[in-house]
Design a protein that fits this description.
Helix content is 41%, strand content 16%. It is an alpha+beta fold. The protein has 2 domains: 9-102, Phosphorylase Kinase, domain 1 (2-Layer Sandwich), CATH 3.30.200.20; 114-323, Alpha-Beta Complex (Aminoglycoside 3'-phosphotransferase, Chain: A, domain 2), CATH 3.90.1200.10.
């Protein structure tokens, strides 16, 4: 169970007075998640998730929750926060900023199939299109500056080959004109366990903790690196094609984004390698929690640093390979 802040029935009842949700019928901790404390809430008005944010500032919460509301109003299937009687998206519960989110239908698919890959690709494109008129800005909290800072903090846990691999990727990023890429609000953490499927239908996207303003193609790379890989972390042709083809049914990737995709796959792998290694080295305190092993993304980063396949619709034959100099 990943819970850092406990909530008892009396605290919950007092908190719910701020909302028009009726009487609480069931309330229990949610066993998954790393960053926040989450509880499943059922009232006579419906099913919800109560999230206590453990590490976010008010500015970050304003961005995250307003973005979800913005997307939901534009028919993007995503978790939607409720406003309380005062029109606020969050307030304090047990000394933590807390929001109530409409609970999405469905379950996490541990091994998404081709059709589910296509659905998430299409929904990500709709997300990006809907975000284009979202005015708020949040600098990526796991961007290049963060990568450099964390690399320095983890010097003792990185061998020479690790450090050389990281430096090579940073140099590649510095030599690419990232500022020219289309950008806006992105999810930045769209792993398969951050989406729910109700049977064969996408129930919605959740967990906006790392949502920020960055390149749309980075968001696509994060998705591909998780949804479209085999047991050896290699990209699977059919899955990649399903995601990208479905994405481009709604938003066509620009030439610059196609050119940037191999680098973004590489940087996305690096970001999650270092974040997991950081969490392992400096674990959060709290009740029974868990961290994820960084080795998968270390190995993936090395693979993405050598070559990347692109599908027919992007770069001619699917067997074409892009190599790093």
């Amino acid at each position: 169970m990943s819970v850092y802040t406990s909530v008892d029935c009396a605290q919950l009842e007092q908190f719910l007075l701020r909302y028009d949700l009726g009487k609480a019928l069931d309330f229990k901790p949610i066993a998954t998640g790393i960053t926040n404390s989450n509880y499943a809430l059922e009232t006579d008005h419906g099913r919800f998730v109560v999230t206590l944010y453990e590490h976010h500032s008010d500015d970050e919460l304003d961005y995250m929750l307003q973005l979800q509301c913005h997307l939901a109003k534009r028919s993007v299937r995503c978790s939607e926060p409720l406003k309380d009687r005062r029109g606020e998206f969050y307030s304090t519960l047990n000394n933590r900023p807390t929001a109530i989110i409409r609970r999405l239908p469905g379950e996490v698919q541990k091994t998404p199939d081709i059709k589910q890959c296509a659905q998430i690709g299409a929904e990500l494109a709709k997300f990006h299109l809907a975000s284009m008129d979202f005015a708020a800005v949040r600098i990526n909290p796991r961007g290049l500056d963060w990568i450099v800072a964390v690399r320095d903090m983890l010097q003792g846990d990185l061998d020479d080959s690790d450090q050389e691999a990281i430096e090579s990727s940073l140099c590649a990023a510095q030599n690419f004109n990232l500022e020219a890429l289309p950008r806006g609000a992105i999810h930045a953490d769209l792993f398969h366990d951050n989406a729910l499927f109700d049977g064969l239908v996408l129930g919605g996207i959740l967990d906006f903790d790392y949502a920020c303003t960055d390149c749309y193609v980075l968001d696509l790379a994060v998705l591909l690196n998780d949804w479209c890989i085999d047991q050896n972390y290699q990209l699977v042709d059919a899955r990649v094609s399903a995601v990208i083809d479905a994405y481009q049914q709604h938003r066509i990737l620009q030439t610059a984004e196609i050119k940037a995709l191999p680098l973004m796959l590489r940087l996305a792998a690096l970001r999650f390698w270092l974040s997991r290694l950081y969490d392992k080295t400096f674990p959060l305190s709290g009740e029974l929690t868990f961290t994820k092993c960084p080795d998968q993304f270390r190995d993936m980063h090395r693979l993405r640093s050598v070559r990347v396949n692109l599908p027919d619709s992007l770069n001619g034959p699917w067997t074409a390979r892009l190599k790093w100099d």
